[in-house]
Design goal:
With about 450 residues, the chain is an all-alpha fold. It has 16 helices and no strands. The protein has one domain (about 10-425).
Amino acid sequence: MAPRDANWIDGLRGVASFMVVCGHLCTALVPWLHSPARDPKTAPHLFQLPFFRLAVGGRSAVALFFLITGYVNSIGPIGKSRAGNNDAAFTGIARSALARSGRLVLPTMVATVISWFLANINAYHMTKHVDSTWIRQGWHRQEPSLWAAFRSLFKAEVETWTIGWDEYDGTQWTLHLFLEGSMLVYMTMFATVMVKPKARFIVYAFLYMYYWQLGGGLAVGALKGLNIVVGMFVAELHNHYKDSATSVLPAPIPALMIVAGMFMAGYPQDGAQNTHWSHSMQILMHKLTVKDADVRRFWDHLGASTVLLGIFFSRNARKVLTSPVFNFLGRVSFPVYLMHNTFIKTVLTWMIYLPSAMNPPRNEKGETMDLQRGSTTHVFIAIAVFYWILYRSAALWVQHVDPLCGKVVNAATAWAYGDPPSAQNGRPILRNGSADKTVLPA
């Protein structure tokens, strides 16, 4: 695998990617864990309790990805602006905006082609008959003709970026929001490159207030806008404090911020009224937000933002996130995100339901029933093997697929910029510490 500098934001991205996979496994196999208790009269399971529930929840991880997007994509322009190098800042923004689109769209298209191919060789056949609603909803038919298959592929590739839905992989619904979020960063940076830092802080404040009152329904304001703005705010802090950031606050405060953030990020996806602690949070947030707002997204935002700030000011937390394990998780975070749903619908489903498929269960009338999963031990072993295959495949993706995508994007952007041929070779699109370093969501 190509070398990549270890940094704490990469490690945090890796954690968020792992949490997303855990959350989807929970939705597929034990969806009742998304509630803090089965009902108001039933004692909660261990993984329904605050903090522990983060092990099976992935919603706050999505907020983390938007925070990281705001942070990483703005850190370079802010640094150049503060140094008075406005021309370099504008140039960096222009180049990053084009490169970012290619680096996000092209690998996603490849992942969709893989899922499309599997669907059309009937690899998803078993998902239609399992007892997991979430896995069953991921089933896609085998198209009746080659022409229909290619039409379906084209439709999926386009709709991923237009309406935010990929019929071959529903988990890609966030990707067009990540692209929009990046453009929000570039637009804000473009508008504020020439202003002094204090003025930019005021801009962040007004943007934050705007997005806070915007969120209704899915709460795109809370999911995308608030997190992007806070990410830019933290990037401003980075350029202000630089290497002294971890010594600004007394040691216990960043740790307390991380703990408080983890508690808020544990706000349940479902059934908040089933426990006192989550119901109290629900009531409080309804008072602070607009009518019909999705309060879950606001708690996800506040929790993830507080965790990010705590890590930013904590030397120990940064040290943990720059360890080799977390650095690896960060390097493979995007392919893990792109492939995990496909692997759940194939590899994991085959391992869990194969014994039942070999002897399909029938009811008293002799009618075929949904396939049943194996024992708890069987499922845990299957999940362990699934994780190994997923992360091994992601490492191979980074080693072989990413460089090819990078070459295509480099060539296309160099042609678009009119760069001489010599400038096309060896110039990375994503430069560490610059505006060109973009976040790849998992």
